[in-house]
Amino acid sequence: MSDHIWETFDSLFKTVRRQGRRVEELETRIADLERRLHERGLEGVKQSKPVEQVFGEMPAERAA
Hints:
Shape: rod-shaped
Order of helices and strands: HHH
């Protein structure tokens, strides 16, 4: 029983560590993309519809 608990803990620890590395990689990529956007001078460009509105609407709300 104890071995199973330690194997589960080890697996969980490895998963959390792997996900942490993926988050760090994504943060690095976002920072790079923001830097490139700034270099191109496109910071003032607006989206046609804010992201909050696109993902904030529920189909039922739109139909009502």
